[in-house]
Design a protein that fits this description.
Helices cover 78% and strands 0% of the residues. By secondary structure, it is mostly helical. The chain starts with 8 loop residues before the first helix and ends in a 5-residue tail after the last helix. 22% of the residues are buried.
């Protein structure tokens, strides 16, 4: 019987890339789900953790593995493959893995609202989109993402959702009454703090992935050279 031929180098590369991205994506979604289910509901401390998004510190480990895995996968490519081509998978994977956490949080928020109501998920989604549009001007996932930069903890029931904008206005008016500072100043502070936290974690994930991607590329180069050297030393068959 003929011996099965190993997969082509390009196929091995693609399989390795898919496996690395799937593993990191699965781990990120699992961490996000566990935080939403068990960590963030803790009274006082859970809200503090969620406001600072401390669970996002996991990007250090996850994106290090992502960068190194995608870089080392280039071992299956030719030495003449340009760096720009090797970097395509990283450019695609970075936003996919990073924003997957917020996509899951948005999904779980809609699920929580649905569980607390007699309305269908489609009706709840429509109400949520209206509330997000009133608060931040956007709907859907992007509306959730931008709104949670100012309001990390969103309403958990439909009644709270319907008065979300009014509650925010009351909260800011109370801050103005006690401090004498205009409400617009507080809005800028909340926006700046929220986006600052998001940009910090985004930059942390990007830099970590880039650093370990080049480490993976260096390992792949060494592995290819070692393979060539071993092949040159192997005795030829007569």
């Amino acid at each position: 019987m003929p011996t099965p031929r190993p997969p082509a180098p390009l196929l091995r590369y693609l399989l390795t890339v898919v496996a690395v991205i799937a593993a990191v994506l699965g781990a990120r979604l699992l961490i996000t789900w566990a935080a939403e289910e068990y960590l963030h509901p803790i009274p006082i401390f859970g809200g503090w953790f969620k406001s600072l998004e401390l669970v996002e510190l996991s990007v250090i480990l996850l994106f290090a593995f992502l960068g190194y895995g995608l870089g080392s996968a280039s071992r299956h490519l030719s030495t003449k493959t340009p760096l720009a081509v090797k970097s395509i998978v990283l450019i695609v994977a970075l936003p996919l893995v990073f924003f997957s956490s917020y996509w899951l949080r948005h999904y779980l928020w809609i699920s929580q609202l649905t569980a607390e109501s007699t309305l269908t998920r489609q009706q709840i989604t429509a109400l949520a989109n209206q509330a997000l549009a009133r608060e931040g001007g956007n709907q859907g996932f992007w509306g959730y993402y931008t709104t949670t930069t100012r309001m990390p903890i969103l309403p958990a029931t439909v009644s709270e959702l319907e008065r979300m904008a009014e509650d925010q206005k009351w909260f800011r008016s109370e801050l103005t009454r006690f401090s004498g500072i205009e409400p617009g100043v507080f809005s800028m502070i909340f926006d700046g703090a929220g986006w600052g936290i998001r940009l910090f974690y985004m930059a942390l994930a990007f830099l970590t992935a880039m650093i370990y991607f080049f480490k993976g590329l260096a390992w792949a180069d060494v592995a290819r050279l070692r393979q060539v050297a071993l092949g040159a030393k192997a005795p030829s068959k007569t």
